[in-house]
Specification:
Radius of gyration: 17 Å
Number of helices: 12
Shape: globular
Largest sheet: none
Structural class: mainly alpha
Distance between the termini: 28 Å
Order of helices and strands: HHHHHHHHHHHH
Helix content: 55-70%
Strand content: under 5%
Number of strands: 0
């Protein structure tokens, strides 16, 4: 988990090589969910990071493992799992590597009160925009491009702070001294409790009807995002796809 949160590629690779052969099925369902989530995040991040030196065999193995876990979450969501929904959307975004998918992951994690997943989605989207060779073409000006990166980085820092990840906050601030420290105060707003009441079995099933398993979210779902949240900007512009160089 920490390797993924801190974006430590070497630690991700080491942990994956030590643990990929461990079975992801065991009686402790909660532990399987946690392990599967961060194993898939690490696998997909490494598989699609062309700047990180990996053998082709290992890169393909990571991609195969990550997508296998994505399929597992996809099946569980089809069966009505509420807990796997936000994870599925995030993994699809990491694998799909587009800004629009990341925006959907941010919305899903935010509405379910999962601060850590929302923070990861914001940070990874900022990295995507910084490293994508075609990212600048998705914005009319360089200023808009830089503003978007700064916005997602700032959101990530605030979310990590609310999550209590002080080491991660320090890492982000050390890499960018312009980032502020204001908290979104989500705990005081009882965001998680609000999310749990929204995401009962019925509402989760209804939402899945609006979002197909390719994670193509309908306009009605995007418009349903709570516009009263004063701690973050509502996604108001049209989603832009930002492809990143991945596997051939």
């Amino acid at each position: 988990m920490l390797a993924s949160v801190f974006n430590d590629r070497k630690a991700m690779e080491f942990n994956l090589d030590e643990s990929l052969d461990i079975q992801l099925h065991e009686p402790m369902i909660s532990r399987v969910h946690f392990r599967s989530t961060f194993t898939a995040i690490a696998c997909l991040l490494l598989a699609h990071d062309s700047s990180y030196n990996l053998s082709l065999i290992k890169r393909r193995r990571y991609l195969q493992t990550g997508r296998k876990i994505v399929q597992t979450f996809q099946d569980s969501v089809k069966d009505g799992s509420v807990n796997g929904f936000s994870v599925l959307i995030l993994l699809k975004a990491i694998d799909g590597r587009t800004e629009s998918l990341y925006q959907k992951a941010i919305i899903a994690a935010g509405r379910s009160g999962l601060l850590h997943l929302e923070a990861i989605a914001n940070e990874q989207l900022a990295i995507l925009l910084m490293t994508s060779s075609s990212a600048s073409t998705a914005y009319e000006t360089d200023a808009e491009h830089e503003a978007a990166i700064e916005r997602y980085k700032q959101r990530a820092l605030r979310l990590y702070a609310d999550w209590g990840a002080h080491g991660k906050v320090a890492q982000l601030r050390s890499s960018d001294r312009t980032l502020g420290m204001e908290s979104t105060h989500r705990a005081q707003k009882a965001r998680a409790l609000k999310a749990r009441t929204r995401f009962d079995e019925g509402s989760s099933t209804a939402m899945m009807r609006k979002i197909n398993l390719g994670v193509e979210m309908s306009t009605s779902v995007l418009e349903d995002v709570d516009a009263t949240d004063d701690d973050e900007e509502t996604v108001s512009r049209e989603s832009r796809s930002v492809p990143v160089r991945g596997l051939a």
